[in-house]
Amino acid sequence: MTDVLARLREMQAADLPVHGGRTLAYVYDSGLPDVDRIGREAVAAYAGSNGLDPTAFPSLLQMENELVGFTADLLDAPDGAVGTVTSGGTESCLLAVQGARDSRPDVTRPRMVVPSTVHAAFLKAAHYFGVEAVVVPVGPDFRADAAAMVAAIDADPGRTVLVVVSAPSYAHGVVDPVPAVAAHAAERGIRCHVDACIGGWVLPYAARIGRDVPPWTFAVDGVTSISVDTHKYAYAPKGTSVLLHRSSAHRRPQYFAHADWPGYTMLNSTIQSTKSGGPLAGAWAVTTTLGHAGYERLTRDVFEAVDRIVAGVAEIPELSLVATPDSTLVALVTDATCDAFTVCDEMALRDWYVQPQMAYAGQPATIHLSVSAGTLPHADDFLAALRESVAAAVAAGPTAVDPEVAAFIAALDPAALTDDDFDGLLLAAGLTGGDDLSLPDRMADVNAMLDLATPAMREALLVAFLDRLARPVRATRS
Ligand SMILES: Cc1ncc(COP(=O)(O)O)c(C=O)c1O
Which PANTHER family match (predicted)? Predict the structure, then answer.
């Protein structure tokens, strides 16, 4: 038994660290080991409990109602607001779309209006639920263009079941103009969802500590639902998000019941049916331990880290902010002398994970930072690593994609990518083909190649790549 746990730890050593504040995407670190321990113990205690039936596991129902109540207080929800704990941001976004669609059975070809910076989870929802996504380009400040969103709604209000805005957007960290969009949606009787998956737990505390936060909560008329992830800035273990609705009537279409079969009557509030009680218990334990006072402290810390990073970036001539961050997400752009992807590789060599974001809609590639409270004690170290990484990237020069490879990519049809095409690209990218697939230490060349590809081509390449990675490990058969 100890061997198995030792092996687990050994395998985990290859992963990005989830503690230590040095991983600036995917994970959120409070920097408080006791809080993490309580969260982990709660997950373990409830790992086998089943959230499928709240009457069989009443403690799970109680924890869910308390967590939703805490969230409702945080987001200025009116009396009568209700919510559901889901498995994560994507499930909350999926349910917001599914609920909006099913609230309008009269609409045969539903559409929803979203800004081009909306999280990809909404495009996934459109794909899953057969809702047309009308994607509206954002303005020059990377915020949703309210006038363009209104025009897109009015192009076909009868078929529009939902409009979505973000607080903030993942890619640029800015809050959309929620009041203007929500007011128009309300006038037309259309649902307005605010995707605050990543910012919803920090922005209210940011306002409480006196920072300038644009309006985006239920205090804004016309907002009908909000998603906020507890497994992000509530610093809870992975596996929970809260989807709040302005009223139980708004939530009702999200529920699924099926009694017309010989087994138990299935009654679900989420996409999952059987679901571990662990993540909910973990989120309940962490939020109860920290309380509003704890989150206020952590929010002071995380914004101190953000402010120091922003000030430090201003002193690096090759770097600039894509936008002044409204929240705790920072997007950086490099000048022509410095390759953004090489900076990411150089940061990794210095044990910092920062996330490359590909070029989009005429904007160059950027570097994403999701800053955590746990990053604050290491802010100076981060800036020193960033300065060194930029200097190394400038010294290395531009990452040039071999013109033949570029021409090969340009000639490929993403809809008809064959295994042979993919093998050719793997070889060209220095990733060995066949069964022997391995990632290079430096990703800049691969990223530069992907950056050249159209989004459709990038999707096809990455799907093919994931298909190669995800192969079963079989016991050898004689
Ligand atoms: C704004 C926003 N919405 C939705 C999601 C999806 O959340 P998850 O990765 O938990 O499914 C994210 C994730 O970063 C996000 O930033």
Answer: PTHR42735, SPHINGOSINE-1-PHOSPHATE LYASE 1
Q: Which domain holds residue 456?
A: 403-469
Residue 350 lies in a domain: no
Q: Are 444 and 341 in contact (CB under 8 A)?
A: yes
Find the 56 Cα to ligand 1 centroid distance in Å.
31
The answer to whether residue 196 sits within a structural domain is yes
| CATH code, domain carrying 147 | 3.40.640.10
Show pLDDT as tens, one digit a residue, over the chain (478 residues): 679 999 999 999 999 999 999 999 999 999 999 999 999 999 999 999 999 999 999 999 999 999 999 999 999 999 999 999 999 999 999 999 999 999 999 999 999 999 999 999 999 999 999 999 999 999 999 999 999 999 999 999 999 999 999 999 999 999 999 999 999 999 999 999 999 999 999 999 999 999 999 999 999 999 999 999 999 999 999 999 999 999 999 999 999 999 999 999 999 999 999 999 999 999 999 999 999 999 999 999 999 999 999 999 999 999 999 999 999 999 999 999 999 999 999 999 999 999 999 999 999 999 999 999 999 999 999 999 999 999 999 999 988 888 988 888 888 888 888 888 888 877 776 666 555 677 788 899 889 989 999 999 999 988 888 988 899 999 876 5
205 φ, ψ (degrees, to nearest 5): -75, -30
CA of residue 170 to ligand 1 center, whole Å: 8
* Ligand 1: nearest atom to the Cα of 241: 10
Is residue 154 in a domain?
Answer: yes
Of the candidates 309, 306, 301, 297, which has an alpha carbon nearest to the alpha carbon of residue 381? 309
- List pocket residues of ligand 1, CB cut-off 6 Å: 88-90, 93, 119, 121, 166, 170, 195, 197-198, 229
Output the residue whose Cα is nearest ligand 1's atom 9. 89
Q: Which of 24, 93, 225, 229 to mutate to test the pocket of ligand 1 (most atoms within 8 A of CB)?
A: 229
Quote the CA–CA distance of 246 and 222 in Å, as a whole number. 9
The count of structural domains within the chain is 2
Point out the domain boundary residue: 240, 265, 288.
288
Phi/psi at 396 (5° precision) = -75, -20
Residue nearest to atom 10 of ligand 1 (CA): 89
Positive or negative: CA dihedral 317, 321, 327, 329: negative
The pick from 90, 176, 193, 225 for probing ligand 1's pocket by mutation, whose C-beta has the most ligand atoms within 8 angstroms, reads: 90
- CA gap 38, 40 in Å, rounded: 5
